[in-house]
Structure formats: C-alpha cells, structure tokens
Amino acid sequence: MENTRYQRRKSPDPVGRSVTIKDLAQELGLSITTISRALNGYSDVGEKTRARVVETANRYGYRPNRNAQRLVTRRTRNIAWVQADNDRKFVDPHFVEVMAGVLRGARTGNYDIILTSDTSEHQVSVYERYVGDHSVDGFIVDSPQLHDPRIEFLLEAQKPFVVHGTSDRSDEFSWVDVDNYGNFFKLTKLLVANGHRNIAFINGDERFTFAAARQAGVREALAALDMPESTVRVFNAAHPMGDAGFQLTSQALRDSRVSAILYSSSLMAVEGQSALLRAGREPGKDIAIATMDDMLHYLDLSPYEDIFTFVRSSLRDAGELLAAELIARCEKQTKVSHTVVPSTFLIAPDLDGSVLQQ
C-alpha cells in the first residue's frame, strides 16, 4: 500500500480544495514559516531552499491567499495607474503599447494593475485617496509635465512610484524613457548634413516633457551646427490621433521650399502621406522623411522602410520596464534609477548616415 506522503507527491491537489502552504510544507519536509518566508522573498531563506519551494509551488499550482499575504508582508501587490479622463487617450495606440508592456511586467511579478481616471485637475486627489487607504503599493505616472503636481505629491508622500518620462525633479525619482533629446539632436544633424535647409518639424504637445525634450534636441543641434533656428519650422499637435498628421503636413507644405519633414510619431508620418501626395511630393526623392517609431504593433510600416528614416524604440518594452522597476522599488526599496530604453536608427537610401558615426 502506498504511503500518504507518496500519494501527495503524485496528486498534491486534494479533491475539493486548493493546494495550501501546509501541503507544500508537508511535501518538502519544511516548516510552514520557511515556506511562507521563501514565497514572500525574505532574505533569511537560502537560495537553494527558495528555488525548491518556488518550483514545487509552481508545479502544484499553488496560489497564495492575497489577504493572508497582505497581512504578512504589508503589501497589497496592487499598482495604481491614474489617467486623465480623456476620450482619445484610451484609443491612442501609443498608450495601448505602453499598457501592454505594463500588464506583461505586472503579470511576471505577480502584481495587479488598478487603472483608473479622473479629470486632470482632480488627479492628485486620486493619489491622495490611494496613499491614505494603503490600497496600493506604488504608482505608475505617465505623460509628465515639467512641473508636475502628481510627482510633487508622490515625492512628498514618500510612496514608491516610477515615471514614464522626466520632469524638473528627475534626479529625485525613478524613470523610464527614450532618449528624446539625443534622438532628435541626431535626426536634425542628419538632415542638415545632407543639405536640408528648410525642414518642417511636426512635434507633439510641448506642455509634455517628451515633446519639449525633442524640440530642445532640434534647437541645440542647429546651434551646434551654427545654423539659424529658421532652418526648422515647428508645428505642434495637441494629439497624434485623428488627422493631425495630415493637417500639419498640409500646413508645412504651403512653403514649397520644404525639403524634409521630421515627425515626432510614425503615426503622424503615415497620416501625412496623403498630404504629400496631394502636393505632388514624393518621399525618398524630392522630400526626405525622418520619424520617431514607437513600434506600434497595429501599424504596418513595411511600405515605408525604403523611403522613411526611422529611429525605433519600443513603447511596449518601456511599459514592461516601468512595471519591473516599480515592483523592485515596492519589494526591495531599491535606489532611484534612470532607465533609457534603447533606440535603433534605420537610415533611408536618400540620406547618407555616416554623419551619425562621427
């Protein structure tokens, strides 16, 4: 007759109930306390023991009781992400890409995302409520502005948070971002080095730091090259959705001298193609196109790969990094970190990219 210990190894999930910490303790011959501390990441449990516990828990489909876990660790394993109540935000593919990465990162870390919204002027009150009732462990902040009241509040509250972007106090908090300044400095340098002296720059809303940094990169590249600021004319979009790319490209092309267009988003660059067609302009031949590409999964850019110059960086990867960094701060109280998401330049045949190697 088989003993009960061997039977438990073969069928650890007793009929009618889930596997518990007690089951794992009996299976591994360890105390319930050791199992609990191993699963909750305490440093006094050896790595080999922790690995055995985690492997067995995964194999047997153990799922922790969140309420009990919260009492032990004083953590909720919830992350709040507060959005401005904006009709376009939730259909914006840029936001969707970041969200996909955040959800993946949270799932990997066994955390849940609480996604909520309020009007811009009331967003801080949502943060106050979550901090006050201790219902979340930390926050993701996106679309920061230079002087951002959300960041000011969270710094004062001393609650873990990570920002997708930067502000005037960036050295005081953890952030994840692409090199907005550097990428647009290089793109401007590339266009000027290839002889373009009338460039249209279709940027985002410069109230937000990503767009302000891109504009600064363009401006300072011109200064470094001893070129007048009039070399580049800036057009700002309040939002990349809708027909912003078409409308702003149409405005830019009213000046027939424009020989290159620099876009802040590949979405606007694609939207602008119908305006170029109407104006009788042909990308890659009589007008150069350079754009930031956030690697939006729904947008097929293959038809443009021989006529657009891209600087590519994944928003989905940025979202995953945001979640991972915040979880690390929630669990280990890690120091402030600044993560730059890698970018790759893909130069179209109509431009000589050797200047970027100098």
- CATH 4th-level superfamily of the largest domain: Response regulator
- Given helix and strand content, the structural type is alpha/beta
Shape: elongated
CATH architecture of the largest domain: 3-Layer(aba) Sandwich
Oligomer: single chain
| Average pLDDT, all residues | 90
| Tally of alpha and pi helices | 14
Straight-line distance between termini: 77 Å
Rg computed from alpha carbons, rounded to a whole number of angstroms: 26 Å
Question: How many beta-strand segments?
Answer: 12
Q: Indicate the proportion of strand residues.
A: 15-25%
Strand order of the largest sheet: 2-1-3-4-5-11
And the CATH topology of the largest domain?
A: Rossmann fold
